[in-house]
Description:
The chain is of the alpha+beta class.
Amino acid sequence: MTETEAVVQSENGSENKPEDTSPENLAKVDRQINYYFGDYNYPRDKFLQQQAQLDDGWIPLEVMLKCARLKALTQDPATVVLALSQSKESVLEVSEDKQKIRRVKPAPDVNEEAQLQTKSRTVYCKGFPEDEKLDDLLEYFAQFGECETVLMRQYKDKTSKVKKMKFKGSLFVVFKTEELAKKFMELESVKFKETELIRQWQTAFLEEKSKERQEKMSSTNKPRRDNDGKDINESGDVELPKNSVLSVKEIPGDVTREDIKSAISNASEDVKVAFINFNKGDTEATIRLVGEGSASKVIQITDFLQIRFFLTNGFTGFNHKS
């Protein structure tokens, strides 16, 4: 779920704070609102897309001010208008009555070419404290040039009774241009609070993680059965039912394993997920389904799934793997 989908459902009990119109806060408001409508987030944001269709692209500021991160910075439409009026490179225009905003230019398509281009300017970094905040990370990376987004990699805290996602201390940073990403990677040393960061191109990192998972699966010799009750042979390979594995590519960084599983379950009661080889931040996933021929059942409802995935998360669809 993108940030703008986290809309506050009730205003009861909220406290009005004095408006902060300092240059620092106005800059944060400008950065946040332009992120929502920027080339990276806007095409992937189902909530904004739905709102924009209601009024020729215009979205009321009162709607935007219910979005969590913007609301934390301001609760006054006038503050947003003031911030945008001082913006150097805003992608937005303000309505005459100063109550609505919309993108100046159409949003780019999230097609295969665009996804590859985004990968070419995305860098993996590791070495951050697990309690670090997104605002601080955005401010940190700003010194290396304009960034479209910072995707904090997270994991589910199993020690807590309440389901909670925690920062892993690693992230993906998407620079505005490939040149900025290359300059960042060519730096001899990059430190965050005296800690030297581990840096890799996203593509290299994901390939490395994929190889590690494959080696881990093939290195175990312990006899066992998978969730389908099928034997796993001595090499560690699962004797899979025919036509039961799918692959998904071009997955945005904010998608979770639960998002994928829920989409399949909601699409068909007849299809059960046995295993998903995917971690948040990965761009590809392998999905193993229960029962022979289950992949064909999913392909039969591909049109529905493609629409659902594209609107919510930017998926390009499924492919057979077996």
